[in-house]
Design a protein that fits this description.
Blueprint (H helix, E strand, L loop, with lengths): L2 H21 L2 E4 L2 E4 L5 H5 L11 E5 L5 H16 L3 H13 L13 H5 L7 E4 L8 H6 L2 E6 L2 H14 L9 H9 L8 H9 L7 E5 H6 L1 H11 L6 H10 L2 H11 L1 H7 L14 H14 L4 H5 L2 H4 L3
Parallel strand pairs: 3-4, 3-5, 5-6
Antiparallel strand pairs: 1-2
The protein binds adenosine-3'-5'-diphosphate (A3P).
Adenosine-3'-5'-diphosphate (A3P) binds next to helix 3, helix 7 and helix 13.
Length: 313
Amino acid sequence: MAAKELSESQEKKQEELEKTTSKDGLFLYDGSLYPAIVCCPETLKILDMFKARRDDVVLVGYAKTGTHWVAQMLTELEAASGKYDEEEMKQRQQKLEELKIDPFLEFGDPEKFERMEKLPSRRIIKTHLIPHKIPRSIFEQKPKMLVLFRNPKDTAVSYYHFSKGMKLIPSEQTWDDFFSDYINGKVCYGAYLDHIIEWNKYIDYENVMFTTYEELKENTTLGLKKIAEFFEFSVTEQDIQTTIEKTSLKAMKDKGNEINRVAAKSLFRKGIVGDWTSLFTEEQSKEMDRRFEEHAAGTKLGKMLKYDIYCKN
Ligand code: A3P
């Protein structure tokens, strides 16, 4: 790119950045919006410093697709599989706290990547990033990755409530405004449909497993068994049942409330399939249908999302 073009595009980004950061809790970095409350440009700039390990357990999911739920499932399954006794469990937890490792790869301070090297295997790595922004070493080392999706309409509604609750958007922003931003990719992590299109390229990769929020809600036992098998977690039927209990919405909400009531209220909300009908107008629903049909419906991953079942009346 010529220097002039580069500076013009930088100027444009800067203008947009000023528009967004001045009115809400988001900032623009390298063409995508991020939540300023947990992310900073310095960390995003050196994401490639992250060194993946082949035995890492990687969870990728767009915001509001149920990433906290599935991350907790992975934590429980990994712990059961590792057969850690109480003391070992405590030490592992302490290590995480001591090292102040933020829960998602793109969150926190830039020095975290160095600290993450001190974590014992198997580490559970989480991210909301789109493939082309994910640190390169994840694709080089090829650890097993679980990629989570949720129907785009429920994701939008969940995202709206979360953004309001966490004050990521101005208080006067209505659902209609948010919907327009969501559909045009002017929300953190960009347009959800772009994530579907990009991840579809990895659909046949052996180290990548895809699952959906709806599939896990419909048959959690089966979903957990598939996940355990994929990551080669050695767990019993009892471990699966215990994991279900420990990761129920109520259990996670109660635990979340002990740590941060405001965040817990936004993170653990209704936890249902089909809440989109509470906010989508007919026109918005048709607009989403049209965009999905145009960009994602024909892809293998698009078909996996069972759009007609979960997004149509
Ligand atoms: P709703 O807002 O539709 O209720 P994320 O963790 O990616 O931020 O996603 C948040 C969504 O997952 C919220 O959806 C939340 O209620 C739901 N969720 C969180 N924990 C859950 C659980 N244990 N069981 C089912 N859904 C859960």
